[in-house]
Specification:
The protein is an alpha/beta fold. It folds into three domains: 1-81 and 275-305, Rossmann fold, CATH 3.40.50; 83-267, Rossmann fold (3-Layer(aba) Sandwich); 306-386, Alpha-Beta Plaits, CATH 3.30.70.260. It has helices at 12-15, 65-70, 83-98, 101-110, 117-124, 145-156, 170-175, 186-192, 212-216, 235-244, 257-260, 276-296, 329-339, 368-375; strands at 2-6, 22-25, 33-36, 52-55, 74-76, 137-141, 160-164, 181-182, 195-198, 222-226, 247-252, 265-267, 317-324, 344-352, 355-362, 380-385. It has a seven-stranded parallel β-sheet, with helices on both faces. Strands 2-1-3-4-5 form a five-stranded parallel β-sheet. Helix 9 links the parallel strand 9 (195-198) and strand 10 (222-226). Helix 3 (83-98) packs across helix 6.
């Protein structure tokens, strides 16, 4: 029986993906799989039995990826499962920036006892007049699952959409509307666009990407939307730009004391993926990927090991070997098998930076002493037989 521990509350709809060979454990001790959302795992000790951590969401800064890789623990995330939820919040943000909806709502609340409110609001509403987003230029930086959905939706809303992503995947390229203008650089988006929305991961190359230098290249009165990661925007430079009016509004899903001291900020409390549908989609995808790995050894959407999929094993057994990406690993593994007359029927190997994964289908069953022999090869981190 495969033990699954839920570090956060996980949607029951997702857990229903797991069949009766899985059981939900009350403790992480002895668990084969941990399902997590936002709980911080950096200080956790991992049980030797732990094989996989599945994050019901895209961001994985709450998980110690390198330490997991060293222990042969595959970490999964669920890219795209919450894309529609974030897309809708981004569009709502643009609407709130274009039209002073919040100011108008506040005025109505403040004047709720006014018997002449129906008449007085006709005079007051000019204070909350705004613009339409149709016909405006939107720049989307990062064309992954979320960025692509935002770009496509805003084309349909009548916006002229610019997209920039030097690392766009083939899947995203196929999904992207042909009406999206492919910007040659982020600078082109900075120069041309009235609205700029960020959809890139937090990494050294993107931290602080929206700072003084980038903002100086933008149009006066630009609107910047950040529903991706807090560290993408330099708070000090954003405050200065908002004070000067260079940036008219900053919309973010990541409030902090510095952000909340700025003028013309519309902040939400990390609501991007907080819909019932998104939570169900993320949980379902996380459970499906973890179950596929436990049953068949297949890896899809791992963030610390390479993707590798050989479907269902049609032979006597399958070996799943997590190891370091160093020379002659495959040679040593296959030599060990050949020395014991083990015939390989099918094999797949992939690498991701310092780590690699090898799957081998064999026509013979593999005895325990062979597993131990392979496990002793320098650089092998974990061996499983299925």
């Amino acid at each position: 029986m495969t033990k699954v521990y839920c570090l956060n509350n996980i949607s029951k709809t997702g857990l229903e993906v797991l069949d009766d060979t899985f059981t939900i454990s009350d403790t992480p001790e002895g668990a084969d799989v941990i399902l997590v959302r936002s709980a911080v795992m950096h200080d956790m000790e991992f049980d030797p039995e732990l094989k996989a951590i599945a994050r019901a969401g895209a961001g994985v800064n709450n998980i110690p990826l390198d330490r997991c890789a060293e222990k042969g623990i595959v970490v999964f995330n669920t890219p795209g499962a919450n894309a529609n939820a974030v897309k809708e919040l981004v569009i709502a943000g643009m609407m709130m920036a274009a039209r002073d909806i919040i100011g108008g709502i506040d005025w109505v609340k403040e004047n709720h006892n006014d018997r002449n409110i129906s008449k007085d609001m006709e005079k007051a509403k000019k204070n909350f007049a705004g613009t339409e987003i149709s016909g405006k230029k939107l720049g989307v930086i990062g064309l992954g699952a979320i960025g692509t959905e935002v770009a496509n939706a805003c084309v349909k809303l009548g916006m002229t959409v610019y997209g920039f992503d030097p690392y766009i995947s083939v899947k995203s390229a196929w999904m992207l509307s042909r009406s999206v203008h492919h910007a040659s650089s982020a600078d082109e988006i900075f120069r041309e666009c009235d609205y700029i929305t960020l959809h890139v991961p937090a990494m050294d190359a993107t931290k602080g990407m929206i700072g003084r230098e980038a903002i100086e290249k933008m149009k006066d009165g630009v609107v910047i939307l950040n529903y991706a990661r807090d560290v993408l925007v330099n708070d000090d430079d954003m405050k200065e730009a908002l004070e000067s009016g260079k940036v008219s509004h900053y919309l973010t899903d990541f409030p902090n004391p510095a952000v909340m001291s700025m003028k013309n900020v519309i902040a939400t409390p990390h609501l991007g993926a907080s819909t019932e549908e998104a939570e169900e989609n993320c949980a379902r995808m996380a459970c499906e990927q973890a179950a596929d790995y436990i049953r068949y050894g297949n890896i899809r959407n791992s963030v610390n090991y390479p993707n590798c999929d050989m479907g269902v094993c049609a032979y006597a057994c399958r070996l799943c070997i997590l190891h370091r990406n160093i020379p002659n690993m495959i040679g040593q593994i296959t030599a060990a098998l050949a020395a014991d007359n083990m015939n390989i029927a099918n094999m797949s190997n992939g690498s991701r930076k310092e780590y690699a994964y090898t799957m081998i289908d064999l026509e013979n069953d593999v005895p325990e002493d062979m597993l131990e022999k392979i496990g002793r090869i320098n650089g092998v981190l974990k061996v499983r037989k299925l």
